[in-house]
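---------- Forwarded message ----------

FYI, see the TadE-like domain-containing protein record below. Original note from H. follows.
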Amino acid sequence: MGEERGSVAAELALALPAVLLALLLGAGALGAASLQVALQDAVADAARLLGRGEGADAAEGVVGRAVPGAAVSSSGSGDLVCVTASIDVSLGAVVRLPLRASSCALDGGR
């Protein structure tokens, strides 16, 4: 019985960093997923603004307010106007995740 004394503490000391890492990465992944939804919603709003005839500054402003630091580009193809935005997200100090969203709307305002 004396040989097993402290084995639970040793096992906990080995498992605790792995559990903390899994929790931190999970929280980071949830944050990135939330940011992806915000980015997709913002580019959809921006595409609708461009489709109504608003300027590119208004579209970039919508995306910039929803997701600060996102790079925004727009293009037209036939009777559609499309907006694409992207941003890199850090999950911890090592993992970088690129997020990208794109949306199109009818170009009826021009």
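H. also flagged this: The chain is about 50% helix and 30% strand.
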